């Protein structure tokens, strides 16, 4: 008979590095593509600048371009697993600012529980959680950080 409790109760510790890799690549690719399209497609660039204006951000066009470049560069670094904690930290800050300035406007409700539920439904909240986990855990086994700097 197969003992299921260890798997059901304690998970699959041997798969941790694979899951860190998957989380890093998926989130990094999402930011990379987001930054890419904001930089290289007119409609996305205009939408980003408009969002900055509506959020009351200073120098909205320059800030939009700066944030887009950061998403592109640090997203690529995250995908490669290079300077992972720094990349995750920068993207965490971008997500936090987006949550505070833009996404929070979609939060509804008067009760604490309902508002909390609305915040937890936002994609920025989930991104921030994954990015915080990457800051804490590091890049994982399958990364350039590990290949280049492990054992130093």
Low-pLDDT ranges:
none
Name the helicity range.
over 70%
What is the number of E strands?
0
Number of helices: 8
Structural category is mainly alpha
What percent strand?
under 5%
- The shape is flat
Describe the 3D structure:
With 152 residues, the chain is mainly α. It contains 8 helices and no strands. The protein has helices spanning 5-10, 16-40, 42-55, 60-80, 84-101, 112-120, 123-137, 144-149. Helix 3 (42-55) crosses helix 4 (60-80) and helix 5 (84-101) runs antiparallel to helix 7. The mean pLDDT is 90.
Task: Summarize the entry for a quick read.
The chain is an all-alpha fold and 152 residues long. It is built from eight helices and no strands. The chain has helices at 5-10, 16-40, 42-55, 60-80, 84-101, 112-120, 123-137, 144-149.
How are the secondary structure elements laid out?
Elements: H1 5-10, H2 16-40, H3 42-55, H4 60-80, H5 84-101, H6 112-120, H7 123-137, H8 144-149
Helix pairs in contact: 2-3, 2-4, 2-7, 3-4, 4-5, 5-7
Notable features of this structure?
about 150 residues, mainly alpha, about 0% strand, flat
């Amino acid at each position: 008979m197969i003992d299921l409790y260890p798997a059901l109760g304690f998970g699959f510790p041997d798969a941790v590095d694979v899951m860190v890799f998957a989380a890093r690549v998926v989130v990094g690719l999402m930011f990379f593509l987001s930054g890419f399209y904001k930089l290289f497609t007119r409609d996305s660039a205009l939408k980003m600048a408009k969002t900055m204006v509506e959020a009351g951000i200073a120098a909205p066009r320059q800030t939009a371009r700066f944030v887009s470049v950061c998403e592109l560069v640090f997203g690529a670094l995250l995908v490669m697993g290079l300077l992972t904690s720094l990349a995750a930290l920068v993207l965490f800050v971008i997500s936090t600012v987006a949550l505070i300035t833009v996404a929070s406007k979609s939060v509804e409700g008067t009760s604490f529980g309902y508002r909390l539920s609305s915040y937890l439904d936002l994609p920025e909240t989930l991104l921030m959680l994954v990015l915080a986990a990457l800051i804490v855990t590091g890049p994982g086994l399958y990364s350039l950080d590990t290949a280049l700097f492990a054992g130093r």
